[in-house]
Automatic annotation (TrEMBL):
InterPro entries to which the protein is assigned, alphabetical: DUF4442, HotDog_dom_sf
Naturally occurring in which organism (per UniProt): Streptantibioticus ferralitis
High-level lineage: Bacteria, Bacillati, Actinomycetota, Actinomycetes, Kitasatosporales
Protein name per Swiss-Prot or TrEMBL: DUF4442 domain-containing protein
């Protein structure tokens, strides 16, 4: 984004209180991928000393929101992005700092074409959660829609 417009991380931090609460760090936010990090914070640990499942869910969902804004931010004047459903699988014990990497599951042009045709497109975003040693601790899919403005 330009020097005069806020970054996606700044926009999400300003509009989504949980992003600020968890101190999520935006490492990358492009239409191709978004990467966010959840620092190791004892206040958000679970009973075994790792990040709480809810904190990891929020990290992954926020990464999905960042890529949606990067990919479809130019459509906000005519449609609002909304999460439709999400599914997460916790694969391995997470300890320390964790990172979520999101990728779109449908071509941007196809989603916009469906919106142009008067539809309410849905599209998946896949997110991988990893520890610092790159072990995958979780995988999540969030299905988003672009709801046309009335």
């Amino acid at each position: 984004m330009s020097d005069t417009l806020p970054s996606i991380g700044e926009m999400l931090s300003a509009t989504v209180p949980m992003v600020r609460t968890l101190n999520l760090e935006f490492l990358e936010a492009t239409p191709e991928r978004a990467v966010l990090r959840l620092p190791d914070q004892p206040d958000y640990h679970n009973h075994i000393g790792g990040p709480h499942a809810g904190a990891m869910f929020t990290l992954a969902e926020s990464a999905s929101g960042a890529i949606v804004l990067a990919a479809f931010g130019d459509q906000l004047s005519r449609a609002v992005p909304l999460a439709v459903r999400a599914e997460i699988g916790y694969k391995k014990l997470a300890k320390g700092t964790v990172t979520a990497t999101a990728t779109l599951g449908r071509p941007i042009a196809d989603v916009i074409a469906e919106l142009d045709a008067g539809g309410r497109p849905e599209f998946p975003v896949s997110i991988t959660i990893q520890r610092e040693d790159e072990a995958v601790t979780g995988e999540m899919t969030v299905v988003w829609t672009l709801r046309p403005n009335s």
